[in-house]
């Protein structure tokens, strides 16, 4: 049967009053399962895996990651994920919706570390992170209505993990996305399939297209149109690799009625024809 869609999983909340917005659990792989993770799927939430010991292999979008002993694995909403081999890992799984934190803090700089996927930790770094995890787990399991406390502790945990991530990535010190930039990215994530013009997003943000471009340029070094196009290209890549849809239908799903126009668009942004990308990535994965 032709696979046309990638299933989407939500937050498997177990705490009362959290409405599928937050969850934390310790997993001992080979024994525990919280979802069907061995088949490709997406998350509608942020995922932070804190590997305490052992080894695990996880595939995120188009790359396999092997984590050992002490490590962090980050996943953003929409990324395609599956377990290649859960191994003998002992880990904490922290899952949450962005709105769970935005309700308690207007500061969103924690999001930037989720542009990474894997970070190895030193033993003392893991120990410091686990101190925050213990507090969160206690509040979540014993005092189930303390949403604000859990959210603030989660923010503190992400502040700590960011301090370990930033020296290894492009995140520079305290440089943070502005509220406007965060709103733009959220709109792109929501509407990129139906709205492809900068003016569409500027109108929703009640600013000019020029102002939006200036903000995006300051925050990312690129322009707003590039952000929109890159999100469309990413979706095309995911569909080309993870489904068996014909190339023309992949183009249609991301807004191109003319297959030739989609092919030109894809090649412009990737340097490859859709069929070549699909073939080359399959070879890379299976060899």
From TrEMBL:
Keyword entries, A-Z: DNA-binding, Transcription, Transcription regulation
InterPro entries: AraC-bd, Homeodomain-like_sf, HTH-like, HTH_AraC, HTH_AraC-typ_CS
Span of domain HTH araC/xylS-type: 182-280
Pfam family, one: AraC_binding
Cell cycle is among the record's keywords: no
Keyword DNA-binding in record: yes
Protein name in UniProt: Helix-turn-helix domain-containing protein
């Amino acid at each position: 049967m032709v696979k046309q869609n990638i299933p989407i999983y939500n937050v498997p909340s177990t705490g009362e009053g959290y409405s599928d917005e937050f969850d934390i659990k310790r997993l001992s792989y080979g024994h525990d399962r919280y979802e069907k993770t061995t088949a490709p799927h997406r998350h509608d939430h942020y995922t932070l895996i804190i590997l305490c010991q052992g080894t695990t292999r996880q595939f995120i979008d188009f790359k396999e990651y092997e984590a050992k002993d002490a490590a962090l694995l980050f996943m953003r909403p929409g990324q395609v994920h599956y377990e290649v081999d859960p191994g003998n890992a002992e880990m904490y799984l922290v899952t949450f919706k962005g709105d769970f934190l935005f309700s308690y803090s207007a500061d969103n700089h924690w999001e930037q570390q989720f542009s990474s996927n894997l970070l190895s930790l030193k033993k003392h770094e893991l120990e410091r992170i686990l101190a925050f995890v213990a507090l969160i787990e206690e509040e979540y399991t014993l005092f189930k209505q303390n949403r604000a406390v859990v959210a603030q502790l989660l923010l503190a945990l992400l502040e700590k993990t960011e301090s370990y991530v930033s020296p290894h990535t492009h995140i520079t010190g305290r440089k943070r996305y502005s509220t406007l930039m965060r709103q733009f990215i959220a709109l792109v994530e929501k509407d990129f399939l139906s709205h492809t013009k900068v003016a569409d997003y500027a109108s929703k943000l009640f600013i000019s297209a020029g102002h939006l471009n200036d903000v995006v340029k300051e925050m990312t070094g690129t322009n707003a149109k590039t952000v929109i196009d890159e999100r469309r290209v990413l979706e095309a890549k995911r569909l080309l690799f993870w489904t068996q849809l014909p190339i023309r239908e992949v183009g249609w799903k991301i807004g191109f009625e003319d297959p030739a126009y989609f092919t030109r668009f894809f090649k412009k942004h990737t340097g490859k024809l859709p069929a070549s990308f699909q073939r080359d990535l399959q070879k890379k994965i299976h060899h």
